[in-house]
Each structure stands twice: as C-alpha cells, then as structure tokens.
Design goal:
The chain is an alpha+beta fold. Helices cover 29% and strands 43% of the residues. The longest helix is centred in the last third of the chain and has 15 residues. The two termini are 26 Å apart.
C-alpha cells in the first residue's frame, strides 16, 4: 500500500468532495487526513490516503479533471509514523486593515522563534484582514514571541493575540 498526497483545485460546485471520495473508496484507498475549503469561489482540497500506487489513483481521478475545470495531482509520500509532539500548541490571531506582507511578516517572526505553523487560515472581509493560525512553539518561547509579535503588529497596524490551545478532544 502506498501513502499518497492528493490535491484537487478548481471552481467550486456541489459534489466535488463526493466524487473524489467515491473514486478513492472504489480503489480501496483509505482517507486518513484531509483539509477542504472554498476560497473566493474556488474549491481546494488536500488529502492524505493509503491505497494503491499513485499512477492508478491518478488514472482513476483523471475523468474528474477531463473538462479542464479541476486540477488533480497525486504524489507518493513517505509515511511519517507516530511523531512526538513537536512543541506546545498555540493559537495566533491577527486582525486589522488589509495591507501587503502581513502573512509574510508574522510567519517570519514565528519561524525566528522556532514556531511551526500547523494550520493557517486568512480571510479578507472588506478592508479587514484576519489570520487564524495553529502553531507549535518550543517550550518557554511563547512569552518572548508574544512580545515580539506585539512590536511587529504595531508596525503593521494590526492587532495580535497568542494563546495556549486547548488539547484536541477526539
């Protein structure tokens, strides 16, 4: 069995998720992790599954992209196995007037403090720009990072909050 990373991108319409999931189920591919969203009328999905070889999955998904509306990619990836937590989980929120470079600047500061972005969403609503990110931080780095983010946010004209995340409950 292969571990595969699959992406599907295109104009949003009802049924995309069902069509992709049905193709994978017919092939016996087990969907293990996924994220799907609509971005300004465009659908974007990334998923990891375990199943047949990449070329077989790619061929089975081809009819979904035959009309040129959807772009599908399939790539074999290496299994990570169980990994110990990489850091302490935090949630970062940034909001303020939209301007060029907010994501680049904020994520650069996170990286400088050893922070790893594990999930990030942005939204533009009128002139208001919002970032919500889940990040893993090295122990003892949250305080100094929060202080640096406050400085950087002031220069960008945005507000920032960093708070410890609640543990996932499954």
């Amino acid at each position: 069995m292969s571990q595969l990373a699959i992406t599907v991108i295109g104009p949003d319409r009802p049924g995309i998720v069902a069509e992709v999931a049905e193709v994978l189920a017919r092939l016996g591919a087990n969907l293990t992790d996924s994220t799907m969203t609509r971005l300004r009328g465009h659908f974007a999905m990334t998923l990891i599954c375990v199943g047949p070889a990449a070329d077989e999955v790619e061929a089975a998904l081809h009819p979904l992209s035959a009309d040129g509306q959807l772009l599908t990619t399939v790539r074999a990836v290496r299994a990570d196995g169980e990994q110990p937590p990489a850091g302490e989980p935090y949630v970062l929120a940034v909001h303020g007037a939209d301007r060029l470079g907010i994501v680049a600047t904020i994520t650069r500061v996170l990286a400088e403090y050893g922070g790893n972005v594990t999930d990030l969403t942005t939204r533009l609503s009128g002139a208001l720009y919002l970032i919500v990110a889940e990040v893993d931080l090295p122990p003892e780095s949250a305080g100094p990072l929060a202080a640096r983010l406050t400085e950087v946010a002031a220069g960008l004209g945005v507000e920032v909050t960093l708070r410890r995340a609640d543990s996932d409950l499954l």
